[in-house]
Amino acid sequence: MPIVTATRLVRFNAAHRVYNPTWSDERNQATFGKCNNPNWHGHNYTLEIAVEGSVDPDTGYVIDLGTVKEVAERELVRHIDHKNLNLDVPFMQGTIPTTENLVLACWRILAPHLQPARLVRLKLWETENHYVEYDGR
Amino acid sequence: MPIVTATRLVRFNAAHRVYNPTWSDERNQATFGKCNNPNWHGHNYTLEIAVEGSVDPDTGYVIDLGTVKEVAERELVRHIDHKNLNLDVPFMQGTIPTTENLVLACWRILAPHLQPARLVRLKLWETENHYVEYDGR
Amino acid sequence: MPIVTATRLVRFNAAHRVYNPTWSDERNQATFGKCNNPNWHGHNYTLEIAVEGSVDPDTGYVIDLGTVKEVAERELVRHIDHKNLNLDVPFMQGTIPTTENLVLACWRILAPHLQPARLVRLKLWETENHYVEYDGR
Amino acid sequence: MPIVTATRLVRFNAAHRVYNPTWSDERNQATFGKCNNPNWHGHNYTLEIAVEGSVDPDTGYVIDLGTVKEVAERELVRHIDHKNLNLDVPFMQGTIPTTENLVLACWRILAPHLQPARLVRLKLWETENHYVEYDGR
Amino acid sequence: MPIVTATRLVRFNAAHRVYNPTWSDERNQATFGKCNNPNWHGHNYTLEIAVEGSVDPDTGYVIDLGTVKEVAERELVRHIDHKNLNLDVPFMQGTIPTTENLVLACWRILAPHLQPARLVRLKLWETENHYVEYDGR
Amino acid sequence: MPIVTATRLVRFNAAHRVYNPTWSDERNQATFGKCNNPNWHGHNYTLEIAVEGSVDPDTGYVIDLGTVKEVAERELVRHIDHKNLNLDVPFMQGTIPTTENLVLACWRILAPHLQPARLVRLKLWETENHYVEYDGR
Q1: How many Cβ atoms sit within 10 Å of the Cβ of residue E38?
Q2: What digits encode the pLDDT tens for the residues E28-56?
Q3: A87: contact with D, CB 8 A cutoff
Q4: Does F130 touch chain E (CB under 8 A)?
């Protein structure tokens, strides 16, 4: 049975501040620069959710990508869209809200909800000039 | 000799209906929803064709991507562009024309025609919000 | 009071056949070529809906673009998304479903529902290589 | 002498909250919904700056678009990039930071600095699904 | 009869050098900077060709955009694609090959060939960050 | 410790001619066609630079992507932007400036400068219709 990867994109907007609360202001500013603005800044994020599996001969689907979208909206997007990643999002508490830590949190949240397909890759765009990827390693 | 992957994009437009002809109307509607419209709907598809090989020292190419484009047009695109995937395309007969089944058919058709390069990945966009990938597994 | 134009994009997928039912098959084929496929083909459409007005000092909005989206979904998109423009869409009956005729129909449907803002331009993409615009003239 | 329009794009990221400080919380929530989050949210903005003029026969330019970029960076972008539009930006004080009010402020700031070309249009994208335009009326 | 604008995009790649041959090297370098490289540089250009007219009731078209594409390929693109705008293109001789002068030349070449539609706007992208427009004034 | 891949995009414009100087004009023309124009042509290139590593618990970063951008500008982009790849670029001497050979050169230049992160993939777009990738094999 051939194995196909199917990917759904979802989008959300959020504010954040990138800083380490255990550091001095000076060290934060030296390390994070304008991303350390205490009054926040924000982004339009795009998340690509890739799942893998064999193609079901009865449906021609690995998984209904409409289901992936619903799972992502319910488990993830409604908790972060139009939110402050530092203040409003329980699953980001205790981590610096970089794109790296956000993609890891997205993985922890989405992975249990996509059976029988397997989550195999997340690609998270923060601007049109940079993105991060995680594959569960 | 370093191994490089070279990718060419091709585009086509097609109509289709996603349904299982052995199922009842009710089950098709419950499973496929608006994609089951018996009067068809359609998409602009983009296919990314990735081939891999060593770089020929005489040409600097893995393969002339103009050749990849010609092969794709001749073997694939002219058979599916401005067509109905359910009715007009011999190589889709007997399969549900989901993006997954379409990418598998594209692989079977393109793989024999790209030597000495090796087809290593197809990525097929059906809308700007979802795509599927196949790598021959 | 300054006048600002605010634009919301909506997207839909549809099948169609471009042909003139009062013409012979030969003339249709000579005129419309592959767009005349009797088994249909289809597209991902993007519609840009531009409305104009003064900025309300109480809201900072010309109009809530969420409202524009809701109007467009209710009056337009749910009638054409995943549909056959020739067979399924009452407001396209009696017209050839070219992008030009589709944008004119979109104008007739949307214009009465956007007060107090004024609909001033529609831009309809049928592929990434062509689009049409209408401004009410 | 033919008149040509030349456009430069600039990009910035910012946080904001869309609300009217003279209204009750209930009215703000009913009017602005998730955009009213008191903990802010944010966007990647793209601004298209269009200037018009005759083509200088000595340079072939309406204006050096590198100059437009420098003006925009100096007068505008460094004051709003990675900032909070409600808290950090003097020229947004006293206005609700909607896309409409932001584009009007950008016009007031940029227009005096682009002679001998004339600023003729600003187009400001807040997400990939909506934008506003202002032409000085 | 409603008036609709229909736009076709075409793409080409070219090399150029932006400089004034009647000036000194120093003045050229001071004015044009890196665009003045005597060994050339180059771009992927995208040209949007907008024509206007009433919708033909027999075809639903302002003009067949396939015809616009053919005209553009024959009259314009094959003379500039994979060419040096300073050395290879007769209709650019005697002008500095800025985007402004190139769009004016495109207008002169295309306008006579698009009847009964009227050429009403050209939009020429030189990079993803800037473009010029001409409307015949 | 989870391993994340972080990618930064950079852009540059360049001229080139694709030909083998040890071949006859006829063989070059037969092999490389319009890319063999002796007067050059050019492109807007986009390079995606992907580095991999564990997420630093103190910063939330694999690596500061601002650093990746600075390294790329200093070591790579300023040597090729607005340049002729055949004539102006020391590290391209002796190779045919195809996208394949250019991506291999980019790897050799960037790889030593990205510790402690590891360069794991380069993706180089030459037009919107084709790109090459290299992963160090």
Answers
A1: 11
A2: 999 999 999 999 999 999 999 999 999 99
A3: yes
A4: no
